Known about the structure:
Blueprint: E1 6-10, E2 14-17, E3 29-31, E4 37-40, E5 44-48, E6 54-58, E7 62-68, H1 69-72, H2 84-98, E8 104-109, H3 116-135, E9 145-149, H4 162-168, E10 170-176
Parallel strand pairs: 8-9
Antiparallel strand pairs: 1-5, 2-4, 3-4, 5-6, 6-7, 7-10, 8-10
Amino acid sequence: MAATTTLALMAAALITTGSTAAPAPPGPERTNLSGLTSQVYPLVFQVEDLAGTQRETQSASETKYTLQSSLLFAKDSSRISQAARSALDDIARKIAAARPAQPVKIMGYTDDLGSAEHGLKLSKERATAVKVLLQKRPELVGVTYTTEGHGEARPIADNGTEAGRRRNRRVEIVVAASTD
């Protein structure tokens, strides 16, 4: 993603609490040699393009590529648009470089407009369309995939507004971090 509006960095944080301080937030706790309890938070990077149609989120365990449906598909369609191909080409190169040992997970989502059954069917078809396109890439030979359609389940924004519904209509491609 060439142009970015957001580089959100939640740095690994170590919060130490003593007996008089407020308790540390929930999460994995460790006790050091002094008997103090500390919390460790994972490092997460997120980059988003200017239009808000693509996001890349990296953590220690995975990289997630989120593409808004408006970039990938026409309304109520599972046919990948010509404009989406360059974004998917870029993601294909990144997947190939990661050399994933686990299946790449592709998940489709819709907003809550229309019937839940239609949204579920459309989200499955869209996830499958992305998988089929990626499978054709020569640099991804040997990579395996799973697809899931979630329809309107698991919204990331408020379905009560058009902006929220637009964010909920998406495809996520999740690549587990390599263990080597």
